[in-house]
Amino acid sequence: MTYVVTDNCIRCKYTDCVEVCPVDCFYEGENMLVIHPDECIDCGVCEPECPAEAIKPDTEPGLESWIKLNGDYAKSWPNITVRRDPPEDAKEFDGKPNKLAEFFSPEPGQGD
Known about the structure:
It is a single chain. With 112 residues, the protein is an alpha+beta fold. Helix content is 22%, strand content 11%. Strands 1-4 form a two-stranded antiparallel sheet. The protein starts with a strand and ends in a 9-residue tail after the last helix.
């Protein structure tokens, strides 16, 4: 089992989770984070740290596409281990539906 970042991270991109990760398995895109499935050790400390509740265990039903997205982008986006301030409009996007189709950016973030 591993953890996976889901659609509510898009345009929220809180980075509280990266500070607590003992294996530094978060990778940063332009407007969301992903977890590298081969690096995650299933410790679960990141899940309660996410204000947007966007981190889920990969055993939850319906996450297959998110597991793939996390694995794919973790290979090309830069690693992030340091917490930064979220986007100014993060609260406006928390809970918005259909964020993947409307707002997802495949571009990498800045990383550490």
